[in-house]
Every structure is written in structure tokens, then in C-alpha cells.
Specification:
243 residues, mainly beta, Deoxyuridine 5'-Triphosphate Nucleotidohydrolase, Chain A, 3-stranded mixed sheet, 7% helix
Length: 243
């Protein structure tokens, strides 16, 4: 077992074998079977809280101190199906199974993203790492800590439960900016840009009306979330239905 497996690594996104090296060396806890090669899922525990006064940004301290303060957070109870129901426009925090155990200075960075299935039902999910003062990752200097995820449903009631994942983490050796593909010539990224003469060389949203089931519309809004049954976030095709 190597104490610092990254000594011979090149900067960039870590692959599955490198993540496994960190696991085998005791630097991270994760479920090895739940990876797509360069990122791995983060799994909820059954320890959940509602933030009573809205979002509380990470501040470089142990987030546990906020969650245990009754002025700021209330512990959630599971229902008979061992699930938690989250209502729109409220902020919730769940502790994650995965942990970091960096015992000395290192050059490992992490960036998290919500799973696409979560974003499609208008739910915000952001990683919180002990010792960090910003969301969605950790930087050099983060020595050890618990991981949490903040979940904010925007439109619908949703359900979550222990062992399921709403976000994933990608690890880097060196700053993540090193892995960004830089484009220097306009011709190299023209395929990303609008061809509309009204807004050349820019990304655009077309708000012209189209016929949808004999109704003309340019956008849609959600129904009242309180009138729908909760959406199970662990189901890829879960849909709310009239109560």
C-alpha cells in the first residue's frame, strides 16, 4: 500500500484505478462498484435535516455544528416506507456515506454535480464538504471530513431514501482548471453557437410559439407541487400524479 499514490500521477481527471488507489490507501471511502470510470455516486444516509431559515452556506468549519443547533436545523424522521418527503422551496441537508481521510498535504481536488435525473425534476443538489467555504467540491488543503448534500426541491414534492444517490463526485490531481479544453479560434467552437441572424455568434433561446396538442405555447410551468404525489428521486422515470 502506497502512502501517497499520486506521486507518479499526471495532472488531470482521475480514472477508476486511481480512485481505487486512494481508497486502498485509506484516503477516501466510497462504494467501488458505483462508478462510471472517472466519477462515483455519493449515497445518502438516513441522517437528514431541514434548515429552518433557508440555506446556510459552508463557512470553512464542521457543518455538523450547524445541523446540531436547534435554532438552525431540525432532524427529519422517516415514514413507514423508510423514505423522506421533501417539499418545494425548503432546504434539506443529508449526510453522505462517503468520507475523506486526507491525513497530510495533498494535491487532490474534487468537483461534484447533481445527477441529470435530479435536475430534470427541478431539484437542486449541492455537495458540502467539511472545512470548505464553498459548495460542490474540495480543494488542496482539505485534510479530512464528512460529506453532506443540500437538496432543494423547486417545484415538486420529492422522496429520497438511504442508499440512493442524487449527486456524483469527480476527482482531479491538480486544479480542475488544468483539465479544461481551451479553444483559441472562433472556428473551433462555431458548432456551439447559434446560426440565427438575429443573434449571431451567441447562444439563444427560441421563444416562438409552437403547436403542442392543439395549443400554442412557448414555455411551460409546473402545476402546484402540493397537488401532486411526491416524485421518487431514485426512479429515472418517476412522475408526479394528481393526489
Amino acid at each position: 500500500m502506497r502512502s501517497e499514490p499520486w506521486k507518479d500521477w499526471s495532472p488531470g481527471v482521475l480514472c477508476k484505478n486511481q480512485i481505487k488507489d486512494l481508497y486502498d490507501s485509506g484516503y477516501i471511502e466510497w462504494e467501488k462498484e458505483d462508478t462510471d470510470g472517472s466519477s462515483f455516486d455519493l449515497h445518502l444516509t438516513d441522517e437528514g435535516y431541514e434548515l429552518l431559515h433557508g440555506t446556510i452556506k459552508p463557512c470553512g468549519d464542521r457543518y455538523h455544528n450547524i445541523l446540531k443547533n436547534e435554532k438552525y436545523a431540525k432532524k427529519l424522521d422517516k415514514d413507514d416506507q423508510n423514505t423522506f418527503t421533501l417539499v418545494p422551496k425548503r432546504s434539506y441537508i443529508f449526510k453522505l456515506r462517503e468520507r475523506l481521510h486526507f491525513r497530510k498535504e495533498h494535491n487532490i481536488y474534487g468537483q461534484a454535480t447533481a445527477k441529470s435525473s435530479v435536475g430534470r425534476v427541478d431539484v437542486l443538489a449541492r455537495l458540502i464538504v467539511d472545512g470548505m467555504s464553498s459548495y460542490e467540491g474540495f480543494a488542496r488543503g482539505c485534510i479530512s471530513g464528512d460529506l453532506y448534500v443540500e437538496i432543494i426541491p423547486a417545484s415538486f414534492k420529492v422522496k429520497v431514501k438511504e442508499g440512493k444517490s442524487v449527486s456524483q463526485l469527480r476527482l482531479f490531481y491538480g486544479e480542475p482548471s488544468i483539465s479544461i479544453v481551451k479553444v483559441n479560434k472562433k472556428e473551433d467552437f462555431n458548432w456551439l453557437l447559434s446560426k440565427d441572424d438575429d443573434c449571431p455568434d451567441s447562444l439563444c433561446v427560441d421563444l416562438s410559439e409552437i403547436n403542442v396538442n392543439s395549443r400554442f405555447a412557448s414555455a411551460f410551468s409546473s402545476l402546484n407541487g402540493e397537488e401532486l404525489t411526491p416524485i421518487d428521486l431514485w426512479k429515472k422515470n418517476g412522475r408526479g400524479r394528481k393526489a
